[in-house]
Every structure is written in structure tokens, then in C-alpha cells.
Amino acid sequence: MKTIEILDAGLATTIQDLGRPHYQAEGVPVSGAVDMLAYCLANLLVDNDEKAAALEFCFRGPKLRFLCTTFIAITGSKSQPVLDGQPLMLNKVYKVQKGQTLSFEAMISGRYGYLAVAGGGLLTTPVLASRSTTTRLKLGGLAGRILREGDHLPVHECLVLPSLYFREFTSEKEVVKQEQVMIRVLKGPQWGAFSPDAQKLFLEGHFSISQQADRMGYRLQGPKLPVPRNNMLSEGTILGNIQITREGLPIVLLADRQTTGGYPVIATVIMADLGKFVQLDSKKEMYFKLISLDEAVTAVRGQYARLKEFKQFLKQKRYQYPLGPARKTAQKIEYLLNKEK
Amino acid sequence: MGYNYQFVPVGEQSLNIVFDEVIDARENRLIHSLADVLIKTELGIIAVIPAYHTLTINFDIFQTDFLKLTTKITQIIKNHSLLTSAERRRIIEVPVCYDEEFGLDLKAVIEHGCITFDELIQMHTSSPYLIYMMGFMPGFAYMGSVADPIAMPRLKNPRAKVPAGSVAVAGKQTGMYPIEAPGGWRLLGRTPVRLYDPKHPEPQYYAGEYIKFKAISKTDYYYIQKLAAAGMYELKELN
Lengths: 341, 239
Hints:
The complex is a heterodimer of chains A (341) and B (239). Chain A has 341 residues and is α+β, with helices and mostly antiparallel strands. Chain A has 5 helices and 20 strands. Chain A starts with a strand and ends with a helix. Chain A: Pfam families: CT_A_B. Chain A: It comes from Liquorilactobacillus capillatus DSM 19910.
């Protein structure tokens, strides 16, 4: 099997996919990509199945050598990818020739980046129907751990990609220039257990992501909320739950969260804003806005509808050749030359 | 039957079915029966997480929504026969070595309950415990309820490391640590069985089933540990 070699693993690079939602009743965390939308987009760009495993990297990206020809797409954090000295754009497909090296300059903003590889993604052995890595359980991925220098990631070679020249996703640039970022939330199951003062402080206070932020969850800094006195019985947790600790500070639960928890959940970040939240820089301040269930449903459906439209668009372009005959010939010659090598 | 419950949205793709906030075996068994029924329906449910008095449901927002789903679930709960025809629940035997080397809190619990060492073992192994829920980590079963004399509150300052296999109590609950982890439960002993194996993480027991502990000697402990390491030990079903 062909592979991609890790020359430098970066800070915390792991293999992730959609995760393991079906074993939560047995206490197995879901895991999977922290920024699910960015992960899905990366797979879509390289024409992969939505379950195809991708590389997730945190802050500092890895350095990789491709030992076969394929196509790649990088999404998520503003990670400044460079292919053999040539800067690449995000959210766009590139062909990678056998022997080429991909590296990353210093990250401009964001936290988690994704690299999808065409031909079905990274082909490590699935565990409990997923290739996602949960490092604290040594589960999935490559030996259940963060990737290291010298690791080889199995992939399929991929020589052609349909509608190649349309595989670029441009979204209306959301201006996150303003100092405070709004994160929309729904009332959590224990919202009513908090005093009106605590609720008010939660919605009016400004928070930022603390240093204690990882794949399990982000602890936030900000005003301390009065905590309900009663202990509650543990119950199931979900992605985006905002727990309030005994010190009165919020933790937002993410991909590697425990399946049950005993801290009261004041609110839940809506799915449509979770991608924005997980990529926030620690310097950025945020505030929470309470919205209705209907609004949240509309927002998340809208977000995935845009991906679906893009997928549809790529399908339509499949048999179209908008390129001049010269370009097409150039592509063919390039292919033949590489075959010679 | 008359169960009190309500539906509480947790997110746009999740809801809780919340019953009375008590630790009650009858109520908890209903939650597990309901979980079993719901996961087999084609209502767009992706996953369920049963807990003491709640059932958390994750659903696919492209197939259903809060209103549609809660209407259907209400009908299912009303249909008693589905839930009362509870299938057989397994009782699984877990061997435990109650030795001071493993049970770092044995002395404290014996003092707490004013009982003898033999009485402690007898109390902890005499009857099967219902697995109320799984959580914390894969294979961590929250079970109950233990006899009052051994129901010692958890440590004020949790240990930084509790070894894998430790069997412990915390108040009326008892549980097992499948992986080394920080923890404040009172350690009574250790099982040689591999409760979690990252290469074969398939669950060996489920919430709603029962665990019965069996006291074993240290010799047996090391013997079973060897078998387990070679993948040749399987948990015994008692029924």
C-alpha cells in the first residue's frame, strides 16, 4: 500500500473522522473532528465519502512527504500550507506529485486544521467502526496516539479527480473583525437550576478561551457565576454542552468529552456556531446569545444545505470541460511525463 | 403505571427524557428498556445515553425534530407492553481479589462500618448489582446499591492515580476502573479481568445488566491475570 510519511508531526496531529456516536451508552466517547464542518468540507473537496479519515492538526501543522500521487484539500484554521515552496490556499484542491513535501508556516489564526487526502482518506484500521483517535484511551487512529516522525499513513494512490477545476469552496467571508464574537446558545437542561443573577451574568458577561483547552473541552475565563447548591445526578452529555464547574466557570464540551457528567449544564452552543467557537483565538472575547430551538434548527440546516449545494454543483460539473483544449492537453502531457519518471 | 417524565431539549439535535431525580432500580430499568426500544426504531435516533434518571437521545435533524420525536416517544411510553416485556438481563460474574495491596481503603471501610473483613467481603459479594449507567470512561459501570455499612463517602482528596481493575465504592454506588485514572472512590480490591482493551474495545457488559462480584485469592488473581493477558479469559454469565 502507498503511504504518506510524517517528517515532523507538528504539535498534536491525529487521525479523525466522524467519530463513534453509537457506543456512548457504553461510555465510549464520540471523538472525531473537533471542527466537524471543516472536516466535512475537506472530504467533499477531494471527492471522498463523508466518513473518510483525515488528518487533524492543532496550532502547528505537520510536515509530510507524499510517497504517491494524489489530491489534497486543507480546511479549518488559517494554517498557511506550503507544497514544495509553493503556498497553497485553503478550501481548494491541489494535485500532489509523488515525492512532494507539504509543510506549514506559522498559523495565522484558528486552532484546528484538516488535511483530506483523495482516494478514500487515511486507511488505518478502524476500531468500533471509526478511525478516530482518542489518545487518552489509546483508541483508534495509529496505535491510539498522536502521530510521530517516521509514521507512515496508508492511502490509495489517486491520479484523476472529476471536476477538478471547480473544487474550490468560497464562502461569504464572515467578518470576525469586531472585538466581541457572538456565540449563539440554547438553554441547557439545568438552565432553570441557576439563579436569575447567574443567568444574567452568563448572558451579559464576556468570556475567552483559557489555556486549558483541548479536544475534550475548552475551559473559559470570565465572570464567575453563582453555582446551584444542589448536587445533581450524572446524566448524558452532548457536543457543545456548557457545564459550570464548582468554581463557577464554564467548560464547553467537545469531541473527546466524557459521555456522562455531573456538572450542571447552563446552555449548549448551537451546532451552527460550534465551528466558529472551536477556532477562536484566546485573545478574542465572546458573549453568549440565547436563541430559540427553531432558530438553531434553521441555522444548522442552512449550514449543511450550503455543503449539499456545493456537492451538487460539483456533480453537475463532472462531465463539463470548460478548459481550453491546450490546458486539457497540458494535463495529459503532465500525466504522461510523470508516468515516465 | 404512572411514570412522571418530561422532555427537555439539550441541543437542536438532542433531548433528555427526564424522570424523577432519584436512584431507583425500577425507574432505571424502565429507562434501559426504553433505550433498547428506541434505538431499534427508525425515528432518526442516532444514539442514546441512559443514566440514573435520564435518557439522552441524539437524533438526526435532517430526519426528525424535537416535536416529531417527542410525539412518537410519548406514544411508545404509553404502550406499556413494549416496556414491560423486559427481556432477560444478564448477570455477569467479576472476580475480585480483596487484598490490602489492592484495596487501599479496606481498613477505612471496615472501621467506617464497624464490621469485620469477612463481613465486608460478604456484603460486597452477596447480591448482584444493577448497572445504572456507564460513563466516565469505556467500561466504567455505575452500580448499586451497596449495603449501608460499606457505603462510605468518597475521599475528600481524590487519588491522582487509581490502578486499572480497581473495584471501589462511593456512597451507595460501586464501580470498577477499567483504565488507570484519577479518582476518589474507596478502593476495596482489584479484578484481574481486562475491563478495557484498546485493541478490542467491544463492550463486555451493558447498562441495565447486573454484575456480581466473587472473592478470589491472590493466587487466582495472578492466574486469571495471565489468562486475561493472553486473551483466554471470558467473563462468566450466571444466568
